[in-house]
């Protein structure tokens, strides 16, 4: 499923609604689903807050359930280029949490709770992708 929304924090509820439609109910009741939502919120809020400093912009959000309890997520925007993967926030934070800017604590959290996180800047667009496995409790 996909949706295009304004890069505005108020549109986060639209993104969450798409997640609820794309992820089966039995996977939405897991701790991993909550972590998926944390990662999605962090990325969307960062894009909304920083990607378009001088203009309004949009975010294309895509989420796909691969059928093996794994969800693939992709964010695309045409805002300011920023590669969150080039910062090693975890290493910087060992002695002083104030060393997290840029590439702050939220990005570090996304790195730790997602799988196959990738970023590229292509055709003047930021493209950030990740996967999250949603373990069903026995």
How would you explain this protein's 3D organization?
The protein is an alpha+beta fold and 138 residues long. The protein has a single domain (2-133), classed as Heat Shock Protein 90 (2-Layer Sandwich). The protein contains five helices and five strands. The protein has helices at 12-22, 25-28, 31-51, 89-93, 105-113, and strands spanning 2-6, 58-65, 70-77, 115-122, 125-133. Strands 1-2-3-5-4 form a five-stranded antiparallel β-sheet. Strand 4 (115-122) and strand 5 form a beta hairpin. Helix 3 (31-51) runs antiparallel to helix 5. The chain is globular, with a radius of gyration of 15 Å. The mean pLDDT is 89.
Mean pLDDT, rounded to whole units? 89
Shape: globular
End-to-end separation in angstroms reads 28 Å
Poorly predicted runs are: none
CATH topology: Heat Shock Protein 90
**What count of domains describes the coordinates?**
1
Q: Class, according to the CATH hierarchy?
A: Alpha Beta
Characterize the main sheet.
5 strands, antiparallel
The CATH homology group name: Histidine kinase-like ATPase, C-terminal domain
Give me the Rg, rounded. 15 Å
């Amino acid at each position: 499923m996909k949706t295009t929304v304004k890069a505005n924090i108020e549109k986060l509820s639209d993104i969450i609604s798409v997640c609820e439609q794309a992820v089966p109910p039995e996977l939405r009741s897991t701790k991993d689903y909550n972590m998926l939502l944390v990662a999605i919120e962090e990325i969307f809020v960062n894009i909304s807050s920083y990607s378009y400093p001088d203009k309004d912009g949009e975010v294309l959000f895509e989420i796909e359930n691969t059928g093996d309890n794994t969800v693939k997520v992709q964010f695309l925007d045409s805002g300011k280029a920023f590669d969150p993967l080039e910062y090693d926030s975890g290493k910087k934070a060992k002695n002083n949490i104030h060393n997290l800017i840029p590439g702050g604590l939220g990005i570090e959290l996304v790195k730790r709770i997602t799988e196959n996180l990738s970023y590229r800047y292509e055709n003047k667009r930021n493209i950030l992708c990740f996967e999250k496995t949603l373990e069903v409790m026995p």
